[in-house]
Amino acid sequence: MKEDYKKVATLEHEIEARLLDSILNERNVPHLITSYYDTAYDGLYQTQKGWGYISAPDAYLEEILEIIAIVRKESQGRSPE
User: Fold this and answer.
1) In a domain, 18, yes or no
2) 17: Cβ contacts below 8 Å, ≥ 6 apart
3) In a domain, 80, yes or no
4) Range of the domain at 11
5) Fewest CB within 10 angstroms: 12, 33, 58, 63, which?
6) CATH of the domain at 42
């Protein structure tokens, strides 16, 4: 039976998306990352909606949200060099 994927969260930028993708792949968490980029509008939707979003089966929602929170917290804690 195919699992239904639901939108979990909006992603802020490509670096966050790539990092999250890497972590989830390491943990074998099924997910799909979709960018809002549209060549016809040259990324206009990304400035309004965020970089993109992640979707996953219901069983993984909490785990993904926890990982996103950790990634965002760690990225805010870094100071520019």
Assistant:
1) yes
2) 11, 33, 35, 51, 52, 54
3) no
4) 6-67
5) 58
6) 3.30.70
* 51 Cβ neighbours under 8 A, 6+ residues apart: 10, 11, 12, 13, 14, 16, 17, 35, 36, 37
| 37 in Cβ contact with 43 (< 8 Å) | yes
Say which residues have a Cβ less than 8 Å from residue 44's Cβ, sequence separation at least 6.
38
The closest of 29, 34, 15 to 60, measured between CA atoms, is 29
Looking at per-residue pLDDT, the higher value among 81 and 21 belongs to 21
Query: Does the structure show a pLDDT above 80 at 73?
Result: yes
Does some domain include residue 75? no
What 3-state DSSP class applies to 12? coil
pLDDT in tens, 13-48: 999 999 999 999 999 999 999 988 665 665 565 566
Angle at 37 between CA 62 and CA 13, to 5 degrees: 50
Domain count of the fold of the chain: 1
